[in-house]
């Protein structure tokens, strides 16, 4: 029987990987559709807001990576036990996303001098502001990003931090942040996730 | 008895107004704390991640405007009936937020020529891309953004859309009657109308 879920994203990890991790963690069968960048222009118009990832289920389609992850997290029981707990998870996920958004312009900057200036700001201001505070949160939460236990926020950081932290600093941006590093490591060692990492296409 | 909730933001609508609307809609008392810009520098590091709004409740503090709004929306029953419906609302809210993320930096641009160029791109590429698609969603959803009924997505759109007019100096929704209709419908809700009347006059 065909999987009841189809996740469409580019052929990479990026913003789709959190959801792939969640599917794998919960043992939920899904069609892992990967679009090559060259083919994207012809696909773009098939989706309401022209963006990926998109989740399809029972004939309906939705976009927005974090919204999709939140939905899947509930299905695989990595969400909060009440509304306030979910607020705490949502808030830390959005904060990690804020950090990602501040770093994204670096990848798109073509002008070398401007790029260098952006990296300077990121290294001297942005990362030193966010990483120690995130480190403190994880320390306070027994090695997790919220609620003192494993939630989808841990999956979000584990997958997203690869996207933005290593690609531009060239070095290990988490070197001075043992709790952040350990949290990511712990996610990657969950058996279902470990298996996925070993077998995933990219 | 002091209100159970304290919402802290600047003395404007911005990203906190959706939550003020939700509190008002649900008749939930809240302390509406407004920080003056000149005091922000000393208060910044007292917030979880140096940003506003924050919500305080039962001794705990959280940030992130959309997360706070989602929490309040549940309290006041402006959410979906199941996880998929909530996903649909979240996706539209995040899409509207994507627009806001393109608008917001332009306010910071000091170079007038650059600012003018950015506004043109905003109108052609951002508004030109998103607004027709959102307009189609409202047409499909009987005058609401999602689920064919009132949800917090309608509040979110209504409270952020003033930013579009502010940056362009135009009535951006003039050519989008359905989107305009959402805004008018939300602002005409008796409890919201009342909130708009009683909120601080300093509110921009």
UniProtKB/TrEMBL annotation, chain A:
It holds the Pfam family GST_N. The keyword Oxidoreductase does not apply. Its EC number is 2.5.1.18. Residues 82-202 form the GST C-terminal domain. It comes from the Eukaryota. It is an enzyme of class 2 (transferase). Keywords: Transferase. The keyword Transferase applies. GO terms for molecular function: glutathione peroxidase activity; glutathione transferase activity. Residues 3-80 form the GST N-terminal domain. Coiled coil: none annotated. It catalyses: RX + glutathione = an S-substituted glutathione + a halide anion + H(+). GO terms for biological process: glutathione metabolic process. Belongs to the GST superfamily. Sigma family. Homodimer. This is glutathione transferase. It comes from Zophobas morio.
Automatic annotation (TrEMBL), chain B:
Belongs to the GST superfamily. Sigma family. The keyword Transferase applies. Transmembrane segments: none annotated. It catalyses: RX + glutathione = an S-substituted glutathione + a halide anion + H(+). SUPFAM superfamilies: GST C-terminal domain-like, Thioredoxin-like. This is glutathione transferase. Residues 82-204 form the GST C-terminal domain. GO terms for biological process: glutathione metabolic process. It is an enzyme of class 2 (transferase). GO terms for molecular function: glutathione peroxidase activity; glutathione transferase activity. It comes from the Eukaryota. Residues 3-80 form the GST N-terminal domain. Homodimer. Its EC number is 2.5.1.18. Keywords: Transferase.
